[in-house]
């Protein structure tokens, strides 16, 4: 009998945040919501390690918005940017340590036809919004699992995107991505089309 997918346990998230951000690559994000069961393979993440990290929302302290980051690991932190895009983060590290990992890109796997090569785009495609903020990722609505057909990614890293305001913290190489995936957010549209055409049956 082939192995089954395994939902990631709490202790997966309750570890060093950079290690969690790296090891989320290749895992599947699953949302059972208004469009049924939707699944995407995680191919790009960014780690945020407040309160010292000036790029992290928690650098401003514990507020109504960031409270979930101070809570138990393995919960969803969903926030809105530009008044339009929802972004999904995974709370990591020990309770009381306000760290989180932004999911930046997915490869569509099941029930997902929208564009997923960006943090706001993947949330729109998987119908993830702020109603899912604080969701326990060990529940039955939104979770991350190691798939039965897990593929080990070839991991690259770089500075995070769009955090130039954070000074020296903007140069931290805390963005991780699968170098072989055409769904990474920084892949050009032309390169993505070419890669997807090659992969088509």
TrEMBL record:
The lineage of its organism: Bacteria, Pseudomonadati, Pseudomonadota, Gammaproteobacteria, Steroidobacterales. The keyword ATP-binding does not apply. Belongs to the DNA glycosylase MPG family. It is an enzyme of class 3 (hydrolase). Keywords: DNA damage, DNA repair, Glycosidase, Hydrolase. Its EC number is 3.2.2.-. InterPro entries: Formyl_transferase-like_C_sf, MPG, MPG_sf. The keyword Hydrolase applies. One of its GO terms (molecular function) is alkylbase DNA N-glycosylase activity. GO terms for biological process: base-excision repair. Coiled coil: none annotated. This is Putative 3-methyladenine DNA glycosylase. Gene3D superfamilies: Methylpurine-DNA glycosylase (MPG).
């Amino acid at each position: 009998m082939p192995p089954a997918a395994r939902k990631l346990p709490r202790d997966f998230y309750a570890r060093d945040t950079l290690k969690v951000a790296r090891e989320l690559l290749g895992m599947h994000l699953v949302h059972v919501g208004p469009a049924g069961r939707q699944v995407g393979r995680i191919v790009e993440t960014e780690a945020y390690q407040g309160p010292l990290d000036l790029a992290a929302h928690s650098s401003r302290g514990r507020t109504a918005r960031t409270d979930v980051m101070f809570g138990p690991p393995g919960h969803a932190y969903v926030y809105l940017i530009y008044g339009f895009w929802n972004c999904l983060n995974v709370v990591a590290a020990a309770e009381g340590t306000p760290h989180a990992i932004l999911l930046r890109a997915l490869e569509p796997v099941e029930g997902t036809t929208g564009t997923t090569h960006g943090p706001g785009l993947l949330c729109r495609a998987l119908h993830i919004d702020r109603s899912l903020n604080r969701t326990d990722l060990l529940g039955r609505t939104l979770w991350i699992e190691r798939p039965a057909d897990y593929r080990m990614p070839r991991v690259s890293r770089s500075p995070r995107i769009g955090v130039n305001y954070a000074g020296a913290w903007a140069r931290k190489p805390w963005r991780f991505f699968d170098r072989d995936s055409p769904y990474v957010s920084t892949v050009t549209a032309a390169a993505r089309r070419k890669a997807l055409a090659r992969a088509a049956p």
